[in-house]
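Not sure how to ask, but would you mind making up any protein sequence you like and the tokens describing how it folds?
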Amino acid sequence: MEEYTLSASSGVVMVDRCTDCKGIWFDTGEAGQL
């Protein structure tokens, strides 16, 4: 897993990415912040 930091209008959001399948997922509330 890798963590990416994204800048959004609501602030900074951390996104997790699987290095095997290249999928991404969000922890609780992160998707709404984007």
About this structure: The chain has one domain: 2-33. The first helix runs from residue 30 to 33.
